[in-house]
Specification:
By secondary structure, the protein is an alpha/beta fold. The chain has 15 helices and 16 strands. The protein is globular, with a radius of gyration of 23 Å. Bound molecules: guanine (GUN) and fe (iii) ion.
């Protein structure tokens, strides 16, 4: 496979690199990028193909309105919750779980339901350019196996966890500690046995998945920590998500100990851990996460509904961060949507901070670093005010794109394989065409749009119709003729 045209990626946070007139070859046996030569004009293309001995490849010439981006990496999504995404947006988290999430997930006891739902979900994600997803499944071993098979068959790169719950949950959506541990191990072994077929092993990784602290006993957390260590697999959960969740944990364990300290004590904070949300982490917590190499999956849309605050991404940029849709806490199965909400949330945070700064200065207080124990509300805003004075709260779309690609890869520790373009890395990519008709993007030839404008238009206005091809590990997993 050989391409010539524009490639765009973000090898560093906030830094957009546009590779024009680029010749990129993919080794079809390994799925890896074999050649990457920017700056070869079309007039020199034939000669270059001859000298680099790439004649045997099929050549795709990208048009001026097309470019290739790294595939999106969704670092937090609940597979079974796709069934009611777009509804249930009217209650706080702890009510929502009982009213919507648990009832929807319960249904996956029925394997047939999983066989019906999961192919639709994976197709939806691929169409939206999500080449890698870190999934929460449901409680059920068999349904989770269906999810694993579905992602493998569709060719999507997937990290999947069997959700564990042994307390504070409905009678028909709970399991014993022993069950949770046994089925987690069985699911890990199932995924690893599929992984023995080498090609597939590259794509599927099992993940140890305690749902969150309210629903998992300390013995369960400890045993899951040991399992993750024994099998050297990633871990995921939710951390310091919302005021009602934080209050629940304090009711269980007292106000002296934070979510982070509990996860740390039970061995669940590792360089392969991805914790969703983190909106109510205090400063010490963020230091702990950074020291452990644990990542945060920022879920801006869901945070708007549940979290009672905004994750201050820039302030905590020393923590690895990716972006998540958090289906169905967030209703949109689209990483473009996550990027947009990330950016608008950062702007609202800046406005709040500006107001807080004015209030603090008005009161003669120092708006300096006062973030020792920032829970939501005024303290967070005051801390943000200090950032505002440094001018670094507002993020732009380039950082959003980074978090949706390379940042996500760092969270999953696969940044040497995917998330940007480099010789030797797997070709996980999407072909974008901003000229597809019928999408929200209008082009005006008299505009003299630059390539960067096309990319920005896609991020801000584009949708799945602008994504005409998707590749995972060099395999063309979606191809739409437009
Ligand atoms: N905390 C525990 N479970 C969930 C869930 O399904 N969604 C969200 N957003 N938070 C959670
Ligand atoms: Fe979630």
């Amino acid at each position: 496979m050989l391409f010539h045209g524009t490639f765009v990626h973000t090898p560093k946070r906030g830094e957009l690199v546009i590779l024009t007139d680029t010749l990129l070859a993919v080794d079809e046996t390994t799925g890896r990028i074999a050649t990457l030569l920017p700056g070869i004009p079309r007039t020199q293309l034939e000669a270059t193909i001859q000298t680099t001995q790439l004649q045997q490849h099929t050549l795709t010439l990208l048009s001026p309105t097309q470019f290739i981006l790294p595939g999106f990496i969704d670092t937090h999504i609940h597979a079974p919750q796709i069934t009611y995404a777009g509804t249930g947006t009217d209650v706080p988290l702890m009510v929502w779980l009982n009213l919507y999430a648990f009832p929807a997930e319960k249904k996956f006891k029925d394997v047939e339901w999983a066989r019906y739902v999961y192919p639709k979900l994976v197709d939806r994600l691929l169409r939206n350019g999500t080449t890698t997803a870190l999934y929460f499944g449901s409680l059920h071993l068999e349904a989770n196996k269906v999810l694993a098979n579905t992602t493998l068959n569709a060719g999507q790169r997937a990290f999947i966890g069997k959700v564990c719950i042994d307390q504070n949950s409905p009678d028909d959506y709970i399991e014993s500690t022993e069950n949770a541990v046994r089925d987690t191990e069985a699911f890990i072994q199932y995924c690893l046995s599929l992984g023995q077929r080498k090609e597939e092993g590259l794509l599927l990784t099992p993940v140890v998945t305690p749902r969150f602290l309210p629903t998992c006993s300390i013995p369960l957390l400890e045993q899951l920590g040991q399992l993750a260590k024994r099998y050297d697999v990633p871990i995921q959960s939710h951390i310091s998500e919302s005021l009602d969740e934080v209050a629940f944990v304090q009711q269980l364990y007292g106000s002296e100990i934070s979510d982070t300290e509990i996860f740390d004590k039970t061995g669940l904070l590792t360089p392969r851990t991805v914790m969703a949300h983190g909106v109510h982490l205090n400063y010490q917590d963020t230091q702990t996460l950074a020291q452990r190499g644990t990542a945060v999956a920022v879920c801006p849309l869901s945070n708007a509904y549940f979290a009672n605050g905004v994750f201050p991404s820039t302030r905590f940029s020393y923590i690895k961060q990716g972006l998540g849709t958090d289906i169905g806490g967030g209703y949109a199965p689209s990483m473009l949507s996550s990027i947009r909400h990330l950016i608008t949330a950062s702007r609202y945070l800046a406005s709040t901070a500006a107001a807080a700064a004015a209030a603090l200065h008005g009161a003669g207080a120092d708006a300096g670093v006062d973030n020792s124990n920032n829970h939501a509300g005024v303290t967070a805003a005051a801390a943000a005010a200090a950032d505002l004075e440094k001018g670094d709260i507002i993020m732009d779309w380039r950082t959003g794109l980074y978090m949706a690609t390379r940042g996500g890869a760092e969270c999953l520790q696969i940044q040497d394989q995917v998330g940007s373009f480099q010789v030797g890395m797997s070709f996980d990519a999407i072909l974008v065409d901003v000229a597809v008709s019928g999408t929200p993007i209008d082009l005006f030839p008299g505009n003299d749009d630059r390539l960067e404008d096309y990319v920005e238009k896609f991020i801000n206005l584009g949708d799945d119709r602008n994504i005409t091809n998707v590749w995972v590990n060099g395999q063309n997993v979606l191809s739409l003729s437009r």
